[in-house]
Amino acid sequence: MVSMQTKQKTICFDLEGPLSPQDNAYEVMKLMGEEGAAIFEVISRYDDIISLEGREGYEPGDTLALIVPFFLVHDITEDDIRAVSASAKIVEGAEYLFKKLQAENWDIYIISTSYEQHAYNIGRRLGVPEDHIRCTKLDLAKRKQTLQESVFPILENAQEEILTLYSDLDSDNTDRIVKCLEELFFHQLPELGFDIFTTRVIGGERKAEAIREIAEEKGIALRDVIAIGDSITDYKMLNEVTAHDGVAVVFNGNEYAVPYANVGLASVDIRFLYLVCEAFERGGKGAAMDVVTNWEDNRSAFEKHPMDISDSAITADIKDFVATQKIPFPYFHNLERADERKKEEIITIHKRFRMQVREDAGKLG
Questions:
Q1: How far apart, in whole angstroms, are the C-alpha atoms of residue 253 and residue 230?
Q2: d(Cα 216, Cα 365) in Å, to the nearest integer?
Q3: From CA 315, how far away is CA 321, in angstroms rounded?
Q4: Do domains 4-21+90-135+203-363 and 24-85+137-198 have the same CATH topology?
Q5: How far is CA 244 from CA 10, 40, 41, 143, 284, in A?
Q6: What is the CATH code of the structural domain delimited by 24-85+137-198?
Q7: CA-to-CA distance for 185 and 212, rounded, in angstroms?
Q8: Are the C-beta atoms of residues 332 and 264 closer than 8 Å to each other?
Q9: I need a labelling partner for 192 at 20 to 30 A (CA). Which of 38, 133, 297, 316 fits?
Q10: What is the DSSP letter of 171?
């Protein structure tokens, strides 16, 4: 039988956002020049649209499958992905958090849409072994062998058309984007023998599937798991954990993720998540929610007099950190008690921190 202590020490992180601010695929597309960034943003918008439609067989984050043919025609390699990843920053406080959790024998997993070349790099820097990372496998050399010459002019024409759609990104008129990319990805390329979805991206339902598989392998229930995410690719994973009475934390999330979590943390530094983890290990979800609610209800007092925060709500070293470091004070929210109006306020707060931490990548779904 699995002990309660073991049950309460499993935690699963999304990577891009909670652990590293870089959107690796976005940065890799920039190797194509400024046009690459624009193409990625249009395809990412298309991803948001058809994900929210609930398109059968399509999951949030499949952007990373849709951009693969552009990698191939521009001779972008796996080494390029690794090189871009090498410059990725780690979110402030993540190294502190992981060292604390590892010292206390937490079982840490990363569940990420990221390509393996990026996910394994960030995991290695944080001390997470590859067998504890679920991510998107990508073999560009193998894919290139299957690429017919007839694909090149199709993609060159599509690239020009996609660039003309960039001006529609911020408008409600997205029909042109859908029509153009629908034709490319679901008709033209398949007819030439190029199956976009040979690249199986770990996003949406596949993240929920991954966290269920981890729980099953460990012989635990999802109520004994903490999950952390921030975007549209995470909402199904967060919802899965919430629905099974676990702790689902949205960290600097957007409107796609916040409604599906039960804990909100908006901060430039993720070390504050340790307070939730420590309470969860001590007393399960109830204790974790108590700490979150205490911070939400007393945030103003805590910010004015951090040294007066009670020991039940903070650890000694995090108390010293907030008392001595000049950073924006974090926000915790108990999302279980938040009505729709309150959630809109929370999303606004999260987006502010999101843009501060993730910069250009913060605007992506």
A1: 4
A2: 30
A3: 10
A4: no
A5: 15, 35, 34, 39, 13
A6: 1.10.3870.10
A7: 30
A8: yes
A9: 38
A10: S
Q: Sheet with 331-334: list strands edge to edge.
A: 133-136, 107-115, 10-13, 225-229, 247-251, 263-266, 331-334
Least Cα distance to 84 among 142, 26, 17, 15 occurs for 26
User: In the 8-state DSSP scheme, what is residue 222?
Assistant: G
CB 69 within 8 A of CB 188: no
> Which residues make Cβ contacts (< 8 Å) with residue 140, sequence separation at least 6?
68, 71, 72, 76, 77, 78
* CB neighbour burial string for 115-133, b if at least 16 within 10 angstroms, e if fewer: bbbbbbbbbebbebeeeeb
Task: Provide the β-strand partners of residue 108.
Answer: 11
Q: Domain 4-21+90-135+203-363, what fold?
A: Rossmann fold (3.40.50)
> CB within 8 A of 218, min separation 6: which ones?
2, 6, 10, 107
DSSP letter, residue 80: H
**Domain extent listing, the chain:** 4-21+90-135+203-363, 24-85+137-198
Cα torsion for 26, 82, 200, 359, to the nearest 10°?
Answer: -30
The one-digit pLDDT tens for each residue of the chain (365 residues) are 334 444 449 999 999 999 999 999 999 999 998 899 999 999 999 999 999 888 888 999 999 999 999 999 999 999 999 999 999 999 999 999 999 999 999 999 999 999 999 999 999 999 999 999 999 999 999 888 888 888 899 999 999 999 988 877 776 668 888 999 999 999 999 999 899 999 999 999 999 999 999 999 999 999 999 999 999 999 999 999 999 999 999 999 999 999 999 999 999 999 999 999 999 999 999 999 999 999 999 999 999 999 999 999 999 999 999 999 989 999 999 999 999 999 999 999 999 999 999 765 445 54
